[in-house]
């Protein structure tokens, strides 16, 4: 099979995959989360199996422990976080008005410091930013409520996700052996190297970045709550959960926290500085400790492309697209790097006259 036909086949497969993803996007959430949970827990199940425990019992025990822990955390945190998030959205217009009033009170000092024109321009800019932030969060909340899961879909998610994870974990080794048996024998070693790189990248996404998100969410939520910041739990969870988008979680959390802190603490600049310091510590930990240790260079995707993948997939496929954006971007990144390496080794790049070599066709 020529290289051209090989590429066309894979392009066709990709188009069919994206079409099916778009067609069934409304029911894929429990399957995607279940598959991610199975991928995350497979090493743990393998470890338990080494104690001479059958695959079925090892899967059941590990999954039962994890589901119990997650269920307990959700029952404790979700009602309180949802209540705080709703209160925050309702109070945002008031916070915006208070900040504008504070800016007007400081206007004479700003005028003396910056000059009349620059002070007026700064006040207008701040007002516009606050209005845009309130409008964006209000629109986002309305979209979430409009597209939120119904009682039936919530029940389906709670029931089907553990079931999907259980059966995928139970048959994980069979699925891997089946996939390997279908690989073309002539290129099996090369395909396995690519799959190994994809597995490393996926581990960075699901295991590494997932751990970073949970640690940051716990850090921000706990720290802001201990400072006594209003809606600290909700803001901290938002900052942590959105940290899978580079700098977005940090920026949203910092803006919301500082806005609430300035209104709540008034002239107590020590507490405002403490809230600001929490985000500086969190950003330092994320960039210098958590991300290098847990994720490293396994994803190796430019943040600009990552943000584009998130926005584009979210626009086309909705919430399920946001969940799949980073793993798919990691897979595409591995394939693109492989294609570039093959191109640089080809006669087309090297300018040699040998056009019948190994790069002319791939069986």
From TrEMBL:
Top-level taxon of origin: Bacteria
Q: Which InterPro entries match?
A: AI-2E-like (IPR002549)
Q: What is one Gene Ontology biological process annotated in the Swiss-Prot or TrEMBL record?
A: transmembrane transport
Instruction: Provide the topology term for how it sits in the membrane.
Output: Multi-pass membrane protein
Keyword line:
Cell membrane, Membrane, Transmembrane, Transmembrane helix, Transport
Q: Which GO terms describe its cellular component?
A: plasma membrane
What parts of the sequence cross the membrane?
7-24, 30-48, 60-82, 144-170, 202-221, 233-256, 268-285, 305-336
Q: Where in the cell is it found?
A: Cell membrane
Family recorded in the similarity comment: Belongs to the autoinducer-2 exporter (AI-2E) (TC 2.A.86) family.
Q: Which PANTHER family match?
A: PERMEASE PERM-RELATED, TRANSMEMBRANE PROTEIN
- Specify the protein name: AI-2E family transporter
- Lineage of the source organism? Bacteria, Pseudomonadati, Pseudomonadota, Alphaproteobacteria, Hyphomicrobiales
């Amino acid at each position: 099979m020529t290289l051209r036909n090989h590429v066309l086949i894979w392009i066709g497969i990709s188009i069919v995959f994206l079409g099916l993803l778009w067609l069934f996007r409304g029911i894929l959430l429990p399957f995607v989360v279940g598959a991610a949970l199975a991928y995350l827990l497979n090493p743990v199940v393998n470890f338990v199996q080494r104690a001479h425990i059958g695959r079925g019992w090892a899967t059941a025990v590990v999954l039962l422990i994890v589901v119990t822990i997650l269920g307990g955390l959700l029952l404790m945190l979700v009602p309180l976080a949802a209540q705080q998030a709703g209160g925050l959205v309702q109070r945002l217009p008031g916070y915006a008005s208070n900040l504008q009033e504070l800016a007007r009170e400081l206007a004479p000092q700003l005028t003396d410091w910056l000059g009349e024109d620059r002070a007026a321009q700064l006040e207008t800019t701040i007002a516009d930013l606050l209005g845009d932030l309130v409008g964006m969060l209000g629109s986002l909340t309305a979209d979430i409520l409009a597209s939120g899961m119904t009682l039936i879909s919530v029940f389906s998610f709670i029931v089907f996700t553990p079931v999907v994870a259980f059966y995928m974990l139970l048959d994980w080794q069979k699925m891997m052996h089946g996939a390997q048996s279908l690989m073309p024998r002539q290129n099996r070693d090369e395909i396995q190297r690519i799959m190994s790189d994809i597995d490393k990248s996926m581990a960075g996404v699901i295991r590494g970045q997932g751990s970073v998100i949970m640690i940051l969410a716990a850090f921000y939520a706990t720290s802001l709550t201990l400072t006594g910041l209003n809606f600290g739990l909700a803001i901290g969870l938002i900052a942590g959960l959105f940290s899978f988008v580079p700098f977005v979680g940090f920026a949203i959390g910092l803006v919301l926290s500082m806005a609430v802190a300035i209104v709540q603490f008034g002239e107590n600049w020590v507490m405002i500085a403490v809230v600001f310091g929490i985000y500086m510590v969190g950003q330092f930990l994320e960039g210098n400790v958590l991300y290098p240790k847990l994720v490293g260079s396994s994803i190796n995707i430019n943040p600009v492309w990552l943000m584009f993948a998130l926005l584009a997939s979210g626009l086309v496929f909705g919430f399920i697209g946001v969940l799949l954006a980073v793993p798919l971007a990691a897979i595409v990144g591995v394939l693109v790097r492989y294609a570039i390496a093959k191109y640089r080794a080809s006669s087309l790049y090297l300018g040699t006259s040998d056009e019948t070599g190994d790069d002319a066709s791939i069986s």
